Amino acid sequence: MTPTPGRTVLLGPQRFLLTAGTVVQQVAPDGPVAVVNAGWQEREADDGELQEVLGGRGSMLRLFARAAEVVEADPALAEAVVVLRTAQHELSALYERRLAHALDALDDLRRAAARPDVRSSGVADAVRALRDLDTWFLDAVGQLYGELVASGVLERSDVLRRHQEEVERLLADAPVLAVAGGHVGELVRLLRLFRVRPRPEQHVVAWSGGAMAMTERVVLFQDRVGDQDPVGFAGAQVWDRGLRRAPGLVVLPHARRRLRLDDPERVATLVRRFADATCVLLDDGARVEVAGDGALPPGTRVLTPEGAVGVVGEAA
Amino acid sequence: MSRPRKLAVNRLRERVAAGADPVASVDRFLARRTVPVVEGRFATFVWRGEADEVMVRHRVVGLPDPLRLKRMPRTDLWWVSIELPEGSRVEYQYETVRGGHREEYLQDPLNPRVAHGPFGASSVCAATGYVVPDWTRPDPEARPGEVVGMRLRSRALRREQELAVYLPARFRRTRRYPLLVVHDGYDYLDYAAARTVLDNLVHRDEVESLVVAFVPPGDRLVEYANHAPHARFVARELVPFLGEQLPLVDAPRARTLLGSSFGGIASLSTAVRYPGEFGALVLQSASMVFTDIGDDHGGGPAFDPVVRFVNAYRARPRRVVERIHQTCGVYEPLITPNRSMVQTFRDVGTQVRYAEARDGHNWENWRDRLRDALTWVYPGEQKFVYE
């Protein structure tokens, strides 16, 4: 008999509005809750409040601490991880530089004096160039992971295998997996290293960065750079592949704080660039239950191709 | 449209001229205001006391220096109003003449706001819109890094060189850190709040956890003015020494030199002498004085080697680092050469981030630009964090 597919609920940031406990209770009233809060990094063990919210049911997977133990015990693996991280950051720096030029080109074309249809054609192709860059980056990252796997260093690591097996057992016992936010780069790396994959029938409740990790590709975004905010790349960039539990979505937590939603052109570019997915806003208090076919419930706030914020189920 | 209100000092002048008690009026005027009096885009400097002449000394390019104050009839109040663009910050001192005796470098006795530097303190006039950045103030939530003293014997400089090394909070020997070498290092610690800034920016994930070597100069005007032994010390002695003592990323992209004024020249000239050894430079109001024709650069003898170096570089510019973060105050005489050098650096393929501030050649200007510089040179992981 085919098991009933598990529910997938994505939530907004939980720092000031703790709804995760209620939602977990609704989707899985009994049994342990497998918890990943590796995005908190050094604060991973500081989970008292989270345990309280989960009614003491949390079965903490402790991926960050496990990773520290693995790299301590296995120097060859530690070195391979450093090499991978360094290469990914170097690759990312090149990607950012290419993106910056591509975004400048797009802006330039938008302002160009030309026949509207000619200009539109140029703009559309410039957006395609952004997509190509995203694809190039993700493929190149995939190749780096491929090199790591092919090196055999993961397979040879007894300490890693022991931790992977422990994590697998904890996951197998839990009807629900809860994934907290934090450093999403670290989170997806550790989910992959310890082979954390929710079973099809296992419920998933993930919030903020944790929700991003449940999508096909993790998209980092920060429009607000400049006088009041730290310098950095202004715009969106893909970083890695996620667990694909919520396919067809680009998840944008803290959108109000990080995106310039009052700039329709900028928003429209984001939507067109990720046109194969729906850009979902996950601000404080947001709750989005993703159906098995990827459908979104009414009331979900999304970005529209016109560069506005729309609501699923409401007429445009 | 409402008529602009008269400046407070003009209203005071009118009241006193109309017969109001001059002493009580001035007392009340000063009691109700901070000094200098900033109203919209104007700032009024006031000084109270007996004198024959009172002047503001400020070194702001474009304004008369000295800026003479007028005495208000029937009072002992001296004043002058100037236009001060939004966001400006001006450091100044008073100069007075009384009975033929001139007194210089006086702080404004009516203004408690003071900036410190190696040559003493100056009073500060902050225009409308200028706010001391919150990240320059101690944040109790920011875990502090540690500053440790080190010494090394320098063959290049023929002396024992001391330095202060900043290790970030949660420093671990199993990690690798990028390096920032700061010229005039102790002044950055004492006058530019460098330690607090680093603690805050690292805590907020705006800047990568990094190791910073704060290095003081010996004979500054010699060693920082394109001096081969200094460059050799930095590139061939200091960097390898720190690499042996600390877990540093062993790559040019993870090595940055920072300096202001002559320290900017020390940074640039070291990179020119050792191209490819460093990934980035942070040049704050660098003394990049040059001549296009003739040799009258106006900087005095101390600038002669600097001008020779900058002229030679401009004659044969080359890409010696990948990136340069360059800033200058628009009220400094150095603003023109700094603007010119941006294009020179860009023409050879250097990535340049250039910013100007309505400020002068001083430590608080350089402090206020540190966030922009450090987040650009060594960006933190904030873009990854979605709590």
Give an overview of the whole structure:
- The complex is a heterodimer of chains A (316) and B (387).
- By secondary structure, chain A is an alpha/beta fold.
- Helices cover 45% and strands 17% of the residues of chain A.
- Chain A is built from 10 helices and 13 strands.
- In chain A, the strands form 4 sheets. A 6-stranded mixed beta sheet of chain A has the order 3-2-4-6-1-11.
- In chain A, helix 3 crosses helix 4 (75-111), helix 3 packs antiparallel against helix 6 and helix 4 runs antiparallel to helix 5 (116-150).
- The termini of chain A are far apart.
- Chain B is 28% helix and 28% strand.
- By secondary structure, chain B is of the alpha/beta class.
- Chain B is built from 11 helices and 19 strands.
- The longest helix of chain B has 18 residues, at 228-245.
- In chain B, the strands form 3 sheets. Chain B has an 8-stranded mixed beta sheet, with helices on both faces. In chain B, strands 3, 4, 7, 8, 9 and 10 form a 6-stranded antiparallel beta sheet that branches. In chain B, strands 1-2-6-5 form a 4-stranded antiparallel beta sheet, with no helix packed on it.
- The A-B interface holds A 13-15, 39, 42, 71-72, 78, 82, 181-186, 208-209, 212, 220, 222, 230-233, 239, 253-254 and B 170, 174, 176, 201, 204, 206-207, 353, 371-372, 375-376, 379-387.
Instruction: Please give the count of helices of chain A.
Output: 10
Q: Give the overall average pLDDT of chain B.
A: 96
Q: Do you know the CATH topology of the largest domain in chain A? A: Rossmann fold
Structural class by SSE content of chain B: alpha/beta
Top CATH class of the largest domain in chain A? Alpha Beta
From the alpha carbons, calculate the radius of gyration of chain B and give it in angstroms.
Answer: 24 Å
Rg of chain A, Cα atoms, Å: 20 Å
Going by CATH, the homologous superfamily of the largest domain in chain B would be: Alpha/Beta hydrolase fold, catalytic domain
Specify the structural class of chain A: alpha/beta
Estimate what percentage of residues of chain B fall within beta strands. Answer: 25-35%
CATH fold-level assignment of the largest domain in chain B: Rossmann fold
Strand order of the largest sheet of chain A: 3-2-4-6-1-11
**Helix amount of chain B, in percent?**
25-40%
List the secondary-structure elements of chain B in sequence, H or E.
Answer: HHEEEEEEEEEEEEEHHEHHEHEHEHEHHE
CATH architecture descriptor of the largest domain in chain A: 3-Layer(aba) Sandwich
Query: What is the 3D form of chain A?
Result: globular
- The CATH architecture name of the largest domain in chain B reads 3-Layer(aba) Sandwich
Greatest chain-chain interface?
A-B, 27 and 21 residues
CATH class of the largest domain in chain B: Alpha Beta
